[in-house]
Amino acid sequence: MIERLCVIGVGLIGGSLARALRAAAACREVVGAGRSVANLQTAVELGVIDRYETDLAQAVSGADMVVLCVPLGAMEGVFTAIKGRLAEQAVLTDAGSAKGSVIEAAQRVFGSVPDFFVPGHPIAGTEQSGVEASFPGLYQRRRVILTPLPNTLSSATERVRAMWEVTGAQVVNMDPVHHDEVLAATSHLPHLLAYSLVDTLSRLDENNEVFDYAAGGFRDFTRIASSDPVMWRDICLANADAILQMIEYFVDDLQALGEAIRRHDGEQLLAVFTAAKAARDCFIEKTTE
Ligand code: NAP
């Protein structure tokens, strides 16, 4: 049982966490915090939080669990605002999509990464953002990756693990560098490709003809290009090295496909498409079990 949960950044991720914990009666009080009063007021009206504070130091006061769900670029400012203001037994965690940058920000602000801070990342989301888009089932049967450091208190990690398990998530621990490499491949590169494809087509096609004739495949492939641009700018800057490495691999393989088309090398194309289809079919089978 969490006595007082403080969610800083009551949007899709923070709002869904608060909703799930409330639905499970796993916390007594939820305090929301953020920049705009309008969003926080909506969160109260929707029953996502009990009350809110716009002063972050005030918001964390007396909370036994503090979860940062702000864009990656805002994490350092939030650490600075709450430094020295957390309750003695408080556990601090975050939901940021890259872990190295958040850990470095904590190091800069606190001098060393506090032992009560458990970096985390729920592998769940939609292309929507804001508290209106939040829902309690977002984390059900999804993974949450925690990246505790050698000095992280195991009791803090266990409390964060227990919190996410209440939401229906499966929690795993991972090294933060490995986390950033894996997510660059499975999430960050696909988002970049979707944004880039839609941008290229929209600039090519002044009359919107491509979009007029686009069908389900285009819609499926580009859904994630409707995601929040600020969040994705922050992720690209925060996880630059791992993303650049993935772009390099991808550009090489795309060029190889282009070469195969130029050579009329049907065998090569068939080999790539067959291997890709088998890999995706296997992924779909595993994730719908
Ligand atoms: P979101 O819906 O846009 O919510 C972000 C919230 O943070 C908003 O309520 C916003 O409040 C607040 N905020 C922004 N800047 C702030 C600042 N400087 N100080 C205090 N509050 C601030 O975004 P989200 O999708 O929930 O993402 C939140 C975090 O989760 C990000 O770090 C993201 O990387 C991570 N994440 C996202 C997904 C996903 O698919 N969306 C998945 C996993 C992890 P105002 O409206 O008042 O500015």
State the main characteristics.
Rossmann fold; three-stranded mixed β-sheet; binds NADP nicotinamide-adenine-dinucleotide phosphate; 289 residues; single chain; alpha/beta; 6-phosphogluconate dehydrogenase C-terminal fold; 12 helices
**Helical content (DSSP H or I, runs of 4+):** 40-55%
CATH class of the largest domain: Alpha Beta
Output the strand order for the largest sheet: 3-2-1-4-5-6
Report the average pLDDT across residues. 96
Shape: globular
CATH homologous superfamily caption of the largest domain: NAD(P)-binding Rossmann-like Domain
Give the CA-CA distance, first to last residue: 31 Å
Overall strand count: 9
Question: Strand count, sense and closure of the main sheet?
Answer: 6 strands, parallel
Order of helices and strands: EHEHEHEHEHEEEHEHHHHHH
State which percent range the strand residues make up: 5-15%
Count of helices?
12
CATH fold node name of the largest domain: Rossmann fold
**CATH hierarchy: architecture of the largest domain:** 3-Layer(aba) Sandwich
Structural class: alpha/beta
Tally of distinct domains: 2
What hetero molecules are bound to the protein chains? NADP nicotinamide-adenine-dinucleotide phosphate
